[in-house]
Specification:
By secondary structure, this protein is an alpha/beta fold. The protein has a single domain, classed as Luciferase-like domain (TIM Barrel), CATH 3.20.20.30. The chain is 47% helix and 15% strand. It has an eight-stranded parallel barrel with strand order 1-2-3-4-5-6-7-9, surrounded by seven helices. It starts with 5 loop residues before the first strand and ends with a helix.
């Protein structure tokens, strides 16, 4: 057994070559239902606007669909990007989802801007919106907690758990607000360890969290062999490399075009930041990750082209980390 007490799934609603975007959304719901049966703690969805290859653009709507198709698993957003929305509207969405689901909704918020300048223009979002992140969080919490001049309806009373998708600065903001954090990507590097320790030391208890709470998020794949597990993560790693060099995120495809030298380096970088392998290998890697970060939860990402293999990976990981 690894020492993560809670393990969850983040699904970015990626489309796959040969399937429609509507089918990609249906796959999210199917995976969430399976995750519930397997015993995962949470199932989260993300926000990406105008990105070819990713169908998940409205996390509040997709989360509502997942909540209606499940009965026990917690469902959340990883996350809603506050620079794109009015805090009152986000608070209203969260309060509504939590009320309708009997308290099963988690609100994860981030500060990322749109993927391209055209998307940012369409969203009417600029750098000043990202710079307003701490104030937006304060406004959001005031609307949810009933301390603002108006209260989000239905009244939430601070019952919806709030998480911050955090970088170094985001960790400090979350500590001051008394919120849980989710760390992924570069924020999981050893260079971020001092910021994580600072978050724990400077955390101020709040109505949402009475103690620091850390979730680490990274791509994970489990298979019979290391090579098979690596292959599961390769389509997403390739798609990410293309997105960073060409400005669009292609559908997941096992038979992609040859990569440039720079793209190949980005693929290696992506895989180096993931956890994959056999059951024993993944157990060893996750135990080391938990020991280094002291994290309370693990949020598993990684979209495979092969849905059957992804389902088996979810099953193997559940058997490894869940009671």
């Amino acid at each position: 057994m690894t020492s993560f007490a809670r393990v969850s799934i983040l699904d970015r609603a990626q489309s796959r070559t040969g399937s429609s975007e509507a089918e990609a959304l249906q796959h999210v719901i199917t995976r969430a239902q399976r995750a519930e049966l397997l015993g995962y703690r949470r199932f989260w969805v993300a926000e990406h606007h105008g990105v070819p290859g990713i169908a998940g653009s409205v996390p509040a709507v997709l989360a509502a669909a997942v909540l209606s198709a499940t009965t026990r698993i917690r469902v959340g957003t990883g996350g809603i990007m506050l620079p794109n929305h009015q805090p009152l509207v986000v608070a209203e969405q969260a309060a509504t989802l939590n009320a309708l689901s009997g308290g099963r909704f988690d609100l994860g918020v981030g500060r990322s801007l749109g993927f391209t300048s055209a998307v940012r223009t369409a969203l009417r979002a600029g750098r000043e919106d990202a710079d307003r992140f701490e104030q937006d969080i304060a406004d959001l919490l005031a609307f949810l907690g009933g301390t603002a001049p108006i209260t989000a309806r239905p009244a939430d009373g601070g019952r919806t758990p709030v998480f911050v998708l955090a970088t170094g600065q985001g960790l400090d903001i979350a500590a001051r607000a008394g919120l849980a954090v989710v760390l992924g990507g570069p924020a999981l590097s050893r260079d971020a360890d001092p910021a994580l320790e600072r978050y724990r030391e400077s955390f101020r208890p709040s109505p949402w969290w009475d103690a620091p709470h850390v979730t680490v998020s990274l791509n994970v794949a489990v298979a019979r062999t290391t090579a098979e597990a690596r292959q599961l993560l390769l389509p997403e790693a390739r798609a990410l490399a293309v997105s960073r060099t060409k400005g669009f995120f292609p559908s997941l495809d096992d038979a992609a075009d040859p990569l440039t030298e720079r793209q190949d380096g980005l693929v290696r970088e992506s895989l180096a930041g993931a956890v994959y392998g056999t059951v024993a290998e993944v157990q060893q890697q996750l135990t080391a990750l938990r020991a280094r970060t002291g994290a309370d939860e693990l949020l598993v990402g990684g979209g495979a082209h092969d849905l059957g293999a992804q389902a088996r990976s979810d099953e193997l990981l559940a058997a490894l980390v869940l009671d």
